[in-house]
Automatic annotation (TrEMBL):
Site residues by UniProt (Important for substrate specificity): Y24, Q82, E166
GO biological process per UniProt: nucleotide metabolic process
Protein name in UniProt: 7-methyl-GTP pyrophosphatase
Organism: Comamonas antarctica
Annotated transmembrane regions: none
């Protein structure tokens, strides 16, 4: 799929590909005003034994970018991954209501770190850099009925940590601390823009 913003950049030299099927990342990347395509990375996302959440996010972001770059060597490819870290334990996408309930019960009253990594790779130029944005999220001490009402209303089963901060999930929190505002949604745009400029793209 090709995104075609009105303000495209005629000086862009290489195609830009987002190595992700996430609609959240696609919508975020479109904010930069660059035309891009999307491609699904074929990457096993199973954590390695005793792999820390931050290391997992970094490894998967780079693996996704490299997997797509191998099929499109002349393009600049973005890979990204997000892992929620609860006391050193990685929390991924719940996918089901029951798992989402268990995640939110475990996170209530806790501070959770959301590790969002972004990697930019271009095989033709040899460019490969990865960056990480850490977001500290404090959850309220949620009652079981609050968790149930929230999940039925928003159904955030495709979100790491079972909460959408850009939606109703913001009511589950007491604070968010970060230096890259879109990182919690799935793609840290400040860091992404820095990497794209370093890779040779001129942003509007």
């Amino acid at each position: 799929m090709l995104e075609s913003p009105a303000n495209t950049n005629p000086l862009r030299q290489r195609a830009l590909i987002l190595g992700s099927t996430s609609r959240y990342r696609r919508e975020l990347l479109a904010r930069l005003g660059l035309p891009f395509e999307t491609a699904a990375p074929e990457v096993d996302e199973t954590p390695l034994p005793d792999e820390a959440p931050r290391a997992l996010a970094l490894r998967l972001a780079e693996a996704k970018a490299r997997a797509v770059a191998a099929l499109h060597p002349d393009a600049i490819v973005i890979g990204s991954d997000q892992v929620a870290d609860l006391a050193g334990k990685p929390l991924g996408k719940p996918l089901t209501h029951e798992r989402a309930v268990r995640q939110l019960q475990a996170m209530r009253g806790q501070t959770v770190l959301f590790e969002t990594a972004v990697s930019v790779v271009c095989q033709a130029s040899g460019f490969a850099q990865t960056a990480l944005a850490t977001v500290e999220v404090q959850f309220r001490d949620l009652a079981d009925d609050e968790i149930e009402r929230y999940l039925r209303a928003e159904q955030p089963y495709d979100c790491a940590g079972s909460a959408k901060s850009e939606g109703l999930g913001i009511t589950l929190l007491t604070q968010i601390l970060n230096d890259d505002p879109t990182a919690l949604i799935g793609l840290p745009l400040i860091r992404t823009a820095q990497l794209l400029r370093a890779a040779g793209l001129q942003l509007p």
